[in-house]
Amino acid sequence: MVTTQHHYPKQGRVILHIDMNAFYCSVHEAVEPDLYKGKPIAVAGSVELRKGIIVTSSYAARAVGIKTGMQVRQAMKLCPDLILIRPDFELYRSFSRRFMQIAYSYSPMVESMSIDECFVDITGSKQFGTPLEIANNIQQKIMKELMLPCSIGVAPNKLLAKMGSDMKKPNGISVLRLRDVPTVFWDKPCNYLYGIGKKTADKLTRLGIHTLGQLAVGDELLLSKHFGILGAHLKRSANGIDHSLVNPEQEQSKSIGHTTTLPQDFTDTKEIHRVFLNLADQVARRLRKQELMASTIQITIRDPEMRTITRSITLPTPTEHMDDIYRTSCQLFDHEWEEGNPVRLLGITLQNLTVKEETFVQLDLFDYEKQPKRENLNRIMDGLRDKFGENAILTAGMMGDNPSAMIRNHKTRGTSLQMDHLRNNPLHKEEEK
User: Which residues bind Mg(2+) (predicted)?
Assistant: First the structure.
């Protein structure tokens, strides 16, 4: 549903989501139009061996059935005239920086989500016109200067802006308001909503929740029982509610993050959870060192074809604890990622950071009794690590199937226990943000 909006709302935000259409292929068409413009082309990894996977394809290729994730061999059988192109990530990054810069010219509040999409908060950009005028101007400028098509969603929050940009491709502009949600979304299946994958949709179906309308009025206790902290988030999302902020690039230092590139593609959920346990431990340790607390937890997932996604959730209560970060990260991953799909890189980033002494934490009775014990345990573990090194204490989950106990190396004082699973799955190329 595409509507018109002529003025900024008296209250609330105005968010754009800019999504570059068939970005990699569109860049090649823009650079060498004589070779590629309007032709069925696809970017793939192992072009010569025909064993690679289609990373993306042009709209001309999609028209004959070529899809992302399809094997090159299969794609060539389907379309013998398909032109295969090896990825050129430096070229893509160059065009990415240029289209982001166009967005920056209308607002400093630009959050890059990946190489080909970003959110822009234009609430304070009234001097450039109405939201639709700004969206139109950005779209036309990107086309004129870069020769690239893009779709733009205009909405009061990031979720609806993202949904809007998917509604009209290529080169469309869609506006979604909160009041549009029941008529536009509620008759759709649950996996129609951004952030709900097949795995979560199947689980909702088993609970008797088949449509977004049913999810929007669902029993929150039931949802929390089966989805944990994500239960309430799912219901809010089905109602079009999203309070997450656009985090501009210059504020990325106000986050604590750690990513690790895996030595091989991981497909086993238990192994992936162990990586998250390691990452959660590291970011929580750094968080406490800076005497901060985090309200938002974001995970990063990259597959072997270099497709990268991020997913985040804002907690009801700020935290500094590894177990909160680990549990939430695993829930986000299980909610998003289809079991068995390969993973090449994983990351956790803590956002919406506040100084611990200035942070009000509202606790229920159970947490109120548990909190002093958790903080005391953190102090003891941090003290041991300060004295004997970061690996003086490791969680048992890093070595086996039980991520609950803390284990200390007794072989030699001050040396760390080596994680058994790292002998077979050594993590490497760790990057700190």
Answer: 19, 116
Question: Which residue numbers belong to the known binding site?
Answer: 19, 116
Residue 102 near residue 142, CB atoms below 8 Å: yes
100-to-109, 241, 249, 252, 360 alpha-carbon distances in Å: 11, 26, 11, 16, 36
Which residues are part of a known binding site for Mg(2+)? 19, 116
Residue 323 in this model has a pLDDT that exceeds 50: yes
From 48, 90, 111, 117, the catalytic residue: 117
Verify cis geometry, omega within 30 degrees of 0, for the bond prior to 87.
Answer: no
Average pLDDT over residues 93-99: 94
Closest CA to 25 of 75, 92, 80: 92
CA dihedral 199, 204, 205, 207 (to 10 degrees): 140
Q: What tokens does 111 get?
A: 């959050």
Q: Which residues contact 173 (CB under 8 A, 6 or more apart)?
A: 2, 132, 135, 136, 139, 151, 152, 153, 154
Residue 20, pLDDT > 80, answer yes
Give the span between the Cα atoms of 150 and 16, in whole angstroms: 12
Q: What percent of the chain has pLDDT over 70?
A: 77
Provide the b/e sequence for 18-44 (b: ≥16 CB within 10 Å). Answer: bbbbbbbbbbbbbeeeeebeeebbbbb
Q: pLDDT digits over 225-271, tens only? A: 999 888 999 999 999 999 888 988 644 447 899 999 888 899 999 99
Tokens of 296: 């938002």
Which pLDDT value is given to residue 317?
84
Say whether 369 is catalytic. Answer: no
3 state DSSP class of 95: helix
Q: For residue 161, how many other CB atoms are within 10 A of its CB? A: 29
